[in-house]
Amino acid sequence: MERRVNRQTAQARTSGGTFLSGGGEMGELMRAHQWADTPLGILDRWPQSLCTAVSILLNSKYPMFIGWGPELLFFYNDAYRPILGATKHPVALGRPMQEIWSEIWDIVGPLADRAVKDGEPTWSDDLVLMMNRYGFIEETYFTFSYSPIRDETGGVGGMFCACTETTGTVIGDRRLRNLHDLAISAADATSVTDAKQRCIAVIETNPVDTPFALFYRLQANGKMLLTGAANAEQGQAIAPETLEVSNNIWPFSRVMRGQTVVVNDLSVRFDDVPLSSWADPVETALLLPVTDLGQVETNAIYILGINPRRPLDDDYHSYLQLVANNVATAVSNANAFEQEHQRAQALAELDRAKTDFFSNVSHEFRTPLTLMLGPIEETLRHTTLTGRERDALDIAFRNGLRLLRLVNSLLDFSRVEAGRIQARYEATDLAAVTTELANNFHSACDSAGLQLDIVCPALPEPVYVDPDMWEKIVLNLVSNAFKFTFEGTISVAVSAVDGHAELTVRDTGTGISASELPHIFERFHRVPDAVGRTHEGSGIGLALIQELVHLHGGSVAVTSTEGKGSTFTVRLPFGIDHLPADRIGSEPSRSSTGNNVSAYVEEALRWLPEDIGKAANDVAPPPASPDGARRPRILLADDNADMRQYVRRLLADHYDVEAVEDGQAALEAARASPPDLVLSDVMMPRLDGFGLLRALRADPDLRHIPVIHLSARAGENAQVEGLEADADD
Ligand code: ADP
Q: What confidence tens digit (pLDDT) does each residue in 665-713 have?
């Protein structure tokens, strides 16, 4: 080849170097270069093919180089300068290519041979080349092609290369992929440890950009604890399990003050430095402060090793910061999840304990109650009782029954909730049974001046229900309707709708506000300040109904308009497909707490004001005062008829007692005829004890009347509240 160059030189036409015109810095450098000292000789002797190639090179904005002659002497343009970097530009000009690219010659040398010796073009796509351009071995990527340049002899005089550096794209893609994996890795982590492990697993898939990672967290004792490590082992010199904030291994103190710190002398600090993917020591690490969500102070430090073959530039720095942010987010999300989970578990545990407690305690209540009710019922059968004795026992009996009913509801409910109640489903003529149950309320409705419509035509087929449970469903709904309806109609209807048996209990009562409707079936939920015939209630009725209906594969719903009334609708499927086969028509289950239609009706009757009259009149007329003087008058307000009757009986020997069913009635009575003392319950429908007290105190004619609150609300708080409201006692 040497010979050929000489021959070409002889043939060269004088060009005067005009082909080197333009070309920026490289044009200038080429024009000034002492070519005479090189195997190429002076410009005038250069072969035309080289002149043309160099001229194209100089006038292109695309990074290119030419290797010419047997040594592949190097020509490049301005656009190629950054590829050579500070260590190779401008010394590379005119030097043999193997000398310039010695560190990658094992890779590009054979490619150059292909082009020059074999005359074949090459193509390399994103080829990794470990170049030394800035004084360190650097991970770079290039897409390029080597093409042979034919000279005037028809042989290959040199090679031409157009190349694109793709380092930014290749590494950027790799980091982006890693960040994406990191972001989704811990999405469904269930604990902080789990989240950390998942993040570490993702970080370990990219050891090039994160040769190692250490996660330290501040403990309550003020020490830093290693809570996770990627590509490193706890206990390694770089990764002690615990560290004081102030230590001579890692500069934690500065990081804890919120600074990001770069440590670039790892091999000075540690005997065994971690190695990079290319097995060279990792010299640099970035220490990032991490502040938990909602906190102000730094509470963790993440240490991320740096790829020794990449500069820690802005891109790299922000990638590492994003890695840290992703891990921190995953950890705090998992922490929130964990806490939420623990709270939910604690609540569920509490719920179970409560159910167990209700279940046990209700059971315990039933035995003594039954033992009290039996003897009272027996005694009431004796004809020798005086009217007064009978009245007293009646009260005891009625209220014992009421207590039993409440206890039973509670027991039923907790059993259903605990899944301990098993229904037995019997083919039932639902229309007939429902009519019979609702009929029991006729007398109460008559006394209350309400109309009770029962429209239950026979259904096309029997419905499978547990008779005891159905009874509770109907009685609860009708007694609620009665409790909250002062005038109009209560309608009970059964019909077949869309393959279901449907029970509707509709009333023209006080209704339920839209904001309360969604909560109405929650256990123990009661509408605050609901206007009803009584304030009594436990908030368990509707919750129990809902559970019982669900046991039948049915649904219960309510619609209501405040002031207009409510409609409760229960739907049960026909047939048996939705029910457990082994519970159909089977032996009656012993779990039911028994039916008690009369208890419901009796209780409803006691809510009626008329009842007071009757009960009150049963009380023996008060003995006249011996000296014929006027007896003091007491006005008694209580929504429980038995309580009115009982208190009245206690006082009737010495006082004239007027008993009314709520605060409003009491206020009216006081205005009509001021009493000497007002004895008032606190929780009452229409106007409660506090409202009554305020109204009395605001009335100049009545403000002097002493008021005593009488309440089942036990405790000092209630007492203080009453006294603060200006009750006398
Ligand atoms: P309780 O009647 O023992 O308070 P329930 O679970 O039966 O408990 O009812 C819960 C609440 O729903 C009642 O306190 C009442 O405010 C409201 N409610 C139930 N039925 C009706 C109705 N027919 N009309 C108006 N309000 C009702």
A: 999 999 999 999 999 998 888 898 999 999 999 999 999 999 999 876 6
Atom of ligand 1 nearest to the CA of 544: 6
Confidence of residue 3 (pLDDT cuts 50, 70, 90): very low
Contact (Cβ atoms closer than 8 angstroms) between residue 531 and residue 686: yes
pLDDT for res 378 = 86
Cβ burial of 497 (10 Å; 0-12, 13-18, 19+) is exposed
Q: How many other C-beta atoms are found inside a 10 Å radius of the C-beta of residue 388?
A: 12
- Identity of the amino acid at 263: V
Q: What are phi and psi of 164, to 5 degrees?
A: -125, 130
* Cα 522 from Cα 518, distance rounded (Å): 8
* pTM score, whole prediction: 0.56
Bond before 90 cis per omega within 30 degrees: yes
* The pLDDT value given to residue 715: 64
Q: Give the separation between CA 40 and CA 33, rounded to whole angstroms.
A: 12
**569 three-class SS:** strand
Ligand 1, residue 538: give the atom nearest the CA. Answer: 3
Q: How far is the CA of 359 from the centre of ligand 1 (A)?
A: 23
Task: Name all residues whose Cβ lies below 6 A of ligand 1.
Answer: 480-481, 484, 507, 509-512, 520, 526-527, 530, 537-543, 566
Q: What is the dihedral of CA 224, 230, 231, 232, to 10 degrees?
A: 20
Q: Which pLDDT does position 6 carry in this prediction?
A: 43
Which residues lie below 8 Å from residue 279, measured CB to CB, with a gap of 6+?
A: none
Identify the CA nearest to 9 among candidates 60, 50, 66.
Answer: 50
Pocket test for ligand 1, best of 413, 475, 526 (most atoms within 8 A of CB): 526
| pLDDT, tens digit, 9 for 90 and up, residues 541-585 | 899 999 999 999 999 999 999 999 999 999 999 999 999 888 888
- Cα(258) to ligand 1 centroid in Å equals 58
Q: For residue 521, which atom of ligand 1 is closest to its CA?
A: 6
Burial class (CB in 10 A: 0-12, 13-18, 19+), 447: middle
Q: Which two tokens stand for residue 50?
A: 């080289």
Residue 436, Cβ neighbours under 10 Å: how many? 15
User: Taking phi first (over 0 means left), then psi (-120 to 50 degrees means alpha), and beta for anything else, what does residue 118 get?
Assistant: alpha
pLDDT at 139 over 90: yes
Task: Return d(Cα 229, Cα 679) in angstroms, integer.
Answer: 74
Centroid of ligand 1 to alpha carbon of 524 (angstroms): 10
pLDDT for residue 238:
95
Q: What share of the chain is helix, strand, coil (3-state, %, to 5)?
A: 45, 20, 35
**Strand ranges across the sheet with 555-561:** 451-455, 489-497, 500-507, 565-573, 555-561
- Least confident range from 202-216, 357-371, 561-575, 609-623: namely 609-623
Share of the chain above pLDDT 70, in %: 93
Contact (CB, 8 A) for 167 and 139: yes
The string of pLDDT tens digits covering residues 58-81 is 999 999 999 999 999 999 999 999
Sign for the CA dihedral angle at 132, 137, 141, 145 comes to positive
Type of residue at 541: G
Residue 404 in 3-state DSSP? helix
pLDDT, tens digit (0-9, with 9 covering 90-100), for 576-635: 999 988 888 855 444 444 446 877 888 888 888 644 334 443 444 445 555 667 889 999
Predicted pLDDT at 717: 73
Is the separation of the CB atoms in 9 and 45 below 8 Å?
yes
Under the phi-then-psi rule, with left for phi > 0, alpha for psi from -120 to 50, and beta for the rest, what region is 284? beta
